[in-house]
Amino acid sequence: MAKFTLLVTGSHSQSQAHHSAIRFIRAVIESGNEISSVFFYQEAVTIANRYLCIPQDETQLTDQWVKLAEAHNFELQVCVAASNRRGVINEEEAKMNGKVGDSIDSAFAVLGLGQLAAAMSNSSSRLIHFK
Amino acid sequence: METTNTTIIIASPPFGKINGKEGVDLALVCAAFEQNVQLVFVDEGVFHLLTTQEEAFFDDKFHDAQLKALEFYDIERVHVEKESLAQFGLTQQQLIDNTSINTRAEIHKMVLQSTHTVRF
């Protein structure tokens, strides 16, 4: 059985990165392999903004991510520096930066880049990048 | 524990995009996690390494100060693709210190020998 760590950096609105990553995850699971974690970096972090309102007849990417992660027991991780820079913040970061209210979907975990580096140091997991 | 060989390729220019800065950030963090990091500049990414870049022309913080911190993270030299330099008529003398000029074929080999490669 192979293990995969996904790095997603493409924008949810300006690239196919999220659609491709989700299809890849389904194929990994269907073939009896495993997803270790998914790390969102660069423009991809805006997927974690809970104020996204995508027209109802279009793909609800956030819902798809959350359902997949729950069903297959992997974490949705967003980079704190990349998400702060793009207005996707949790309560703690909001307080620290003098902002009112958070903007992050609670299904996503806010973590440092070190989390991705640690996953890369674990040689049993292959890194696949969607941009 | 087996050493992880990580190649980070910067192909984006220093201005107009944040890819280069966020790529170098990842390189620094991977190095802090004691991975053997190869930082490679190709295509318009080579402009990150010019010594003549100035904040005055940019009206924002110039990210590449972080390139000066590389040695503190045990990234002793950065690799620059020879063909990319030639494409823009640049020479090694115009670049920051401690660059290693490598051909596309050499960089290809580096990637093949890496555990992970991430391109920005």
TrEMBL record, chain A:
Gene Ontology biological process terms from the UniProt entry: tRNA wobble position uridine thiolation
Chain coiled-coil ranges: none
GO cellular component, one term: sulfurtransferase complex
One example GO MF annotation: sulfurtransferase activity
SUPFAM superfamilies documented for this protein: DsrEFH-like
Compartment(s): Cytoplasm
InterPro entries in UniProt: DsrEFH-like, Sulphur_relay_DsrE/F-like, Sulphur_relay_TusD/DsrE
Keyword terms: Cytoplasm, Transferase
Protein family membership: Belongs to the DsrE/TusD family.
Full protein name: Sulfurtransferase complex subunit TusD
UniProt source species: Aliikangiella marina
UniProtKB/TrEMBL annotation, chain B:
Database matches in Gene3D superfamilies: DsrEFH-like
A single GO molecular function term of this UniProt record: transferase activity
Database matches in Pfam families: DsrE
InterPro entries the UniProt entry points to: DsrEFH-like, Sulphur_relay_DsrE/F-like, Sulphur_relay_TusC/DsrF
Keywords linked to the UniProt accession: Transferase
Domain of life: Bacteria
PANTHER family per the UniProt record, alphabetical: PROTEIN TUSC
Family to which the UniProt record says this protein belongs: Belongs to the DsrF/TusC family.
Name recorded for this polypeptide: Sulfurtransferase complex subunit TusC
Gene that produces this protein: tusC
